[in-house]
């Protein structure tokens, strides 16, 4: 597999600030992967996310998106088409009064022909399972539906990668399921690279790769099994592990023995069952 | 006598207009002094509308809200007093900080209560202590501090009124795990120290499971369950059908029972399930 995003030794300071917010951040994202970024509040996740499609550019170090340097101004439009962004608050992302117009907003700005726009909007709405709602008013949708419309708006640009910055933080449990289910499907079925920033550890269980940020650096990376086996070091970072891993960790402290890296409910229940028998 | 009681409480937004929407319908509830109540429900189920009624921010379309037996909307005086007796921390309260300094923001409520300067100062320090806002931040502008700290300052501003009932509308949304845990601990500490009644609205079934003693479940403007967490979380299918869920631990426990590991139904937090498994290992079984 080849990488679609390469972040190398990036240093970034907000204007007028002394301390760098990104302090030699390095990471690589594989084409087609489902990647999760964890980290305490203020660790630099959102700042990094804004670097991945050139909203911000590094003071030092470099970021390449599909081979394009994000500091190359001529490439900015191509970079934005390659990497789409979805933010936390669905209400701030809606611009039109009808769902399909909202999804058409970005392709219209590209100046695409009407047929092409129509086709892209329909396709995008079907991919997030919101096609039946195309004529609805966005403000009457549930939070999960609004986020899926926001995702459709990004898909209509046919990006190869979508970065989602805490897209489930404001949603109820059903909304969280809808959004996570949608992005996993886009990754697995449609090959779109997904970069998910989240505080919900359970959302990281199926990721291909997890990065943990702290104070502007990547302090740990690996598969979910690898990362979530370091319970103590994650806690030291103000984070936690999925409840499945937490339970097994606590039972281990009490003398149980389990195979490493158990994360799903099924694996967890089976591990406990065999340990008891 | 319950500290809070609602009788046939109904709320209709934009009544009589084409946008009329019934947000609450015939809500009858009693909450006792000192209870810790979790409120759950899908977005739009009526939770925020309900809690705003409890401190008199909205007027019932029908029905009554009683505090210590008195209709809070029956006189101007009661409507005024209820704001201090029932403290409401809004969703994303950090967007409502508006004073020049952290100290002034926390003291806003007590100042409105017309307390002496010394009393105000005492309360600000006490409230800041409860939520872990260090005094070194007192003279800073709320704009200069981090999002997590802003959230704490906003909560301190409500606690500084020493409300008998503290209501928090999704206080941990968007915080990292450590931030969530410490805010939940702060709330428990406040309750332990003051005996206050707590009403916590949350989308995190895990948080609600850890901390509440009673769960009230909203769906479409109605209360559809009102029971112990154990009873509520034993109805996973019903919860899922109304946009909610059970804690992951409940799923593990259910799966264990299917595998003939008979952990009791009352396990819905990590520590409860751990203890149940440990006692099974020793050959016992307890709740
Ligand atoms: N526009 C800005 N100007 C100055 N500082 C900022 C700005 N945005 C974020 N910061 C600071 O940068 C640090 C990292 O923030 P952020 O990237 O939002 O972290 P995270 O998303 O991990 O919570 C924080 O200390 C924050 O206060
Ligand atoms: N200010 C308002 N005007 C009109 N309708 C509203 C207003 N606030 C809430 N609603 C509607 O009332 C219902 C209940 O909303 P709310 O109490 O905010 O639910 P929750 O807090 O459970 O998400 C929803 O249908 C919502 O759209
Ligand atoms: Mg962020
Ligand atoms: Mg609400």
Can you walk through the features of this model?
The complex is a heterodimer of chains A (277) and B (287). Chain A is an alpha/beta fold and 277 residues long. Chain A has one domain: P-loop containing nucleotide triphosphate hydrolases (Rossmann fold), CATH 3.40.50.300. Chain A contains ten helices and ten strands. In chain A, the strands form two sheets. A six-stranded mixed sheet of chain A has the order 6-7-8-3-9-10, with helices on both faces. The longest helix of chain A is centred in the middle third of the chain and has 18 residues, at 173-190. The radius of gyration of chain A is 20 Å and the shape is globular. Chain A starts with a strand and ends with a helix. Chain B is α/β, with parallel strands linked by helices and 287 residues long. Chain B folds into two domains: 4-229, 3-Layer(aba) Sandwich (Rossmann fold), CATH 3.40.50; 247-287, no CATH class. Helix content of chain B is 40%, strand content 21%. Chain B contains eleven helices and ten strands. Chain B has helices at residues 47-54, 76-85, 102-112, 117-131, 147-159, 177-194, 205-211, 229-233, 236-241, 248-258, 270-281, and strands spanning 4-13, 21-31, 36-41, 62-67, 70-71, 86-89, 165-169, 197-201, 214-219, 222-227. In chain B, the strands form two sheets. A six-stranded mixed sheet of chain B has the order 6-7-8-3-9-10, sandwiched between helices. In chain B, strand 7, helix 6 (177-194) and strand 8 form a beta-alpha-beta unit. In chain B, helix 3 packs parallel to helix 5 and helix 4 (117-131) packs across helix 5. The radius of gyration of chain B is 20 Å and the shape is globular. The mean pLDDT of chain B is 94. Chain A binds chain B through residues 39-42, 88, 142-143, 166, 169-177, 199, 201-202, 235, 238-240, 242-244, 246-247, 250-251, 254, 256, 265-266, 268-270, 272-273, 276, and chain B through 41-44, 146-148, 173-180, 203, 205-206, 240, 243-245, 247-249, 251-252, 255-256, 258-261, 270-271, 273-274, 277-278, 280-281. One magnesium ion is lined by residues 47-48, 91, 169 of chain B. One adenosine-5'-diphosphate binds at residues 14, 17, 21, 39, 41-47 of chain A.
């Amino acid at each position: 597999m080849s990488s679609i995003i390469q972040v190398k030794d990036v240093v970034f300071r907000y204007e007028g600030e002394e301390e760098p917010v990104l302090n030699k951040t390095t990471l690589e994202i594989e084409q087609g992967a489902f990647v999760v970024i964890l980290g305490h509040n203020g660790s630099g996740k959102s700042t990094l996310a804004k670097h991945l499609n050139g909203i911000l550019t590094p003071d030092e170090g470099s970021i390449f998106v599909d081979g394009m340097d994000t500091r190359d101004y001529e490439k900015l439009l191509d970079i934005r088409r390659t990497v789409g962004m979805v933010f936390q608050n669905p209400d701030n992302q809606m611009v039109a009064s009808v769902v399909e117009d909202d999804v058409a907003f970005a392709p219209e700005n590209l100046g695409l022909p009407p047929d092409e726009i129509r086709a892209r909007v329909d396709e995008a709405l079907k991919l997030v399972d919101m096609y039946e709602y195309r004529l609805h008013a966005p403000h009457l949708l549930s939070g999960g539906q609004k986020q899926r419309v926001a995702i459709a708006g990004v898909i209509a640009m046919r990006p190869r990668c979508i970065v989602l910055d805490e897209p489930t933080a404001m949603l109820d449990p059903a909304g969280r399921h809808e959004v996570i289910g949608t992005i996993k499907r886009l990754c697995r079925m449609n090959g779109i690279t997904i970069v998910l920033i989240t505080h919900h550890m359970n959302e990281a269980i199926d990721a291909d790769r997890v990065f943990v940020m702290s104070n502007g650096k990547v302090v740990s990376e690996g598969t979910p099994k690898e990362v979530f086996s370091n319970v103590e070091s994650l806690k030291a970072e103000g984070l936690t592990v999925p409840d499945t891993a937490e339970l097994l960790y606590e039972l281990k402290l009490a003398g149980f023995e389990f195979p490493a890296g158990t994360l799903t409910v099924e694996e967890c229940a089976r591990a406990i069952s065999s340990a008891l028998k | 006598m319950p500290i809070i009681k609602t009788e046939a409480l109904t709320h209709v937004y934009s009544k009589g207009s084409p946008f009329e929407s019934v947000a609450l319908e015939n809500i009858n509830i009693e909450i006792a002094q000192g209870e810790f109540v979790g409120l759950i429900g899908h977005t739009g189920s009526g939770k925020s509308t309900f809690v705003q009624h409890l401190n008199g921010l909205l007027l019932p379309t029908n029905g009554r809200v009683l505090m210590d037996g008195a209709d809070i909307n029956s006189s101007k005086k009661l409507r005024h007093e209820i704001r201090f007796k029932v403290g409401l921390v809004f969703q994303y309260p950090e967007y409502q900080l508006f004073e020049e300094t952290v100290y002034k923001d926390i003291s806003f409520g007590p100042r409105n209560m017309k307390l002496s300067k010394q009393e105000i100062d005492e309360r600000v320090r006490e409230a800041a202590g409860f939520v872990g806002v260090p005094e070194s931040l007192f003279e800073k502008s709320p704009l200069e501090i981090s999002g997590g700290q802003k959230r704490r300052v906003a909560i301190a501003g409500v606690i500084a009124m020493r409300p008998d009932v503290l209501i928090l509308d999704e206080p941990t949304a968007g915080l990292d795990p450590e931030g969530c845990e410490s805010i939940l601990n702060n709330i428990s500490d406040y309750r332990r120290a003051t005996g206050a009644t707590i009403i916590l609205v949350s989308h995190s079934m895990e948080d609600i499971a850890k901390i509440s003693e009673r769960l009230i479940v909203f769906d479409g403007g109605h209360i559809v369950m009102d029971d112990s967490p154990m009873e509520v979380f034993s109805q996973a299918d019903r919860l899922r059908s109304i946009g909610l869920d059970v804690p992951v631990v409940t799923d593990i426990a259910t799966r264990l029972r299917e595998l003939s590991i008979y952990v009791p139904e009352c396990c819905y937090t990590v520590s409860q399930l751990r203890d149940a498994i440990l006692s099974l290992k020793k050959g016992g079984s307890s709740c």
